[in-house]
Specification:
2 domains, elongated, alpha+beta, 12-stranded antiparallel beta sheet, 4 helices
Amino acid sequence: MARVECTTVLVQGFLIMQFKSLFRSGYRLAAVAALAVGATQASADVQTFATFSSISPTKNIRLVNSGTGASRTSDFDIYTTSTATSTSVGATQVNFSFLQKGLSAVISNAVANFTLSAAATANEQAIAAGSTLVQPTISGFMTFTSTQAITLTSPFFATKTFAAGANLLTVTFDGAMSGTKNGSNVNMGGSTEGGNNIVFTSDFLDFSNVNNSDLTTSFSALTAGLGIDTNKSLKSFRATAGGQFSSDPAPLVLNVVPEPVTWVMMVTGFAMLGLAIRRQPRAARLTA
């Protein structure tokens, strides 16, 4: 069920970007109607490589509506807080997991410091599509850092230790938020295939091979039902956070160097393969 909800969020983010130009060209109602219809996820090869969840039900997210002042630079700010009553940006602790082979056994529900800081572009009004509220054009960053040293070991790679404070994952992004009017949950997501800008960096993963990047963050147990304020943007609330990060294809494990014995085994294996091919009769090679 959670997977379906995540897919819906990504789809909504994609459609918002596609129809944004229509809103500004006088086709707002037609675009909202199309957004309400929904669609399937663009890529079937996207793989989730990391997830995070709140350690406790304590509210660790704050959304603050900016009001109607003409000089405002955003319609709202959304950020992590170190306590349930803090009014400034601060790190909060969450459980963080990698799903990548070679990392999942070591970094699974590891305690991480999570910081989110993002804002909704001023005058980009929330859209009501039936009972769904959509807030377009949100941008910012989130980062997850280790709270203790992490040592990666493998029979195939040299042991490597990452000090506390290592960058598990940092994401710079733009996207959209959506949820049910008066509901207690709202989702924030985006996809590069949907026209969003999403950039991942990590001390543990290499994203140079990635063609498409997705993020889905869920804010639950809102202190006030989801609604629209006087500046036509989402009303203020506090919530708890969780989410997942995906890409197509999956990123590669970074910063691990094969042991010398592994290099010898690899070279020997390639040599034996080459020898086997040379010994194969010419006719058989031509037929193959």
